[in-house]
Specification:
Elements: E1 10-16, H1 24-28, E2 34-38, E3 43-48, E4 51-57, H2 63-73, E5 77-82, H3 93-111, E6 117-121, H4 128-141, E7 145-149, H5 160-172, E8 176-179, H6 194-213, H7 216-219, E9 226-228, H8 239-248, H9 250-253, E10 269-271, H10 277-287, E11 292-293, H11 309-313, H12 319-333
Parallel strand pairs: 1-5, 5-6, 6-7, 7-8, 8-9, 9-10, 10-11
Antiparallel strand pairs: 2-3, 3-4
Helix pairs in contact: 3-4, 4-5
Amino acid sequence: MTSAQAAPVIDVHTHVVPHGWPDLAAECGGSGWPWLRIDSERDAMIMVGDTQFRPVGAACWDREVRAADMAEDRVDIQVVSPTPVFFNYERPTAQAAAVARIFNDLTLTVTADDPRFVPFCQVPLQDADAACTELDRSLAAGHCGVEIGNHIGDRDLDDEGVVTFLQHCAEVGAPVFVHPWDMSEGPRLDRWMARWLMGMPAETHLSILAMILGGVFDRVPDTLRMCFAHGGGSFPFWLGRADNAWHRRSDLVRGRSEHPPSHYTDRFLVDTVVFEPAALRLLVDTVGEDHVLLGSDYPYPLGERPVGRVVRDSPFLDERVRGKLLSGNALRFLGR
């Protein structure tokens, strides 16, 4: 281990972009697929059709670059998940399933039986049967869990197909990492990366509400291990507002939930990608010290570097709780 901790420091929120995927139109049909424009040995651009989506560097596909950064940041293990632009939930199931197989297999070439990296797969979430099939195939091939987007068009996480998939995840013991994606667009959101700065937290907030008010946590087994990215978005700050509305406007707000929102905070986890000790304290106070675990959003520029800074620098944490956030809670999430 690279850290002085007795237990491994685990970052549950990192992303991969495999190098050299095939022509997706030729492999899967359709058009307008993502492709990788190689600019140099260490730099590339994710393209979607003719549009630049995101510049990426060697840390996205070179595990030794990742390992060097992990050593510098005192991280022992990374959970390596897809970059959400590859989910393709809006496409026909057969196309999305084919892309999931391609990228899941390529991810394993990056992690390559290296204990420093824990691969999570993607699935064609628009179709529950296909999603379960790809999850099972990927787990058998070496993946350890699954990352899903927080919605499928206008279908949120209380959609019957998604609930079926989550029940299957609980049955097979696969941890689920939920990442916001496909945020709303418009003149007010297309400036200043507002889709990422405001849209992502709002998307995650809405999805946790959908899990609660849609009755999902009342229906899926409590063995389901589920973590939401970016500290649960804006949900922790506005939990009191949700509880107040649940009690005072039960005619509109309760939905299918049996209890107020605060009842369910022990049913999910959130990562620490909140950047400030005050925000981290709110998370710990709101969902509990057993439900917050280290994340970074590595290797993207809106992530935390050095990884774990906010956990290590927060004066309100004692060493026992800090150990849970850096290691123990992630071990439980991963089923280890």
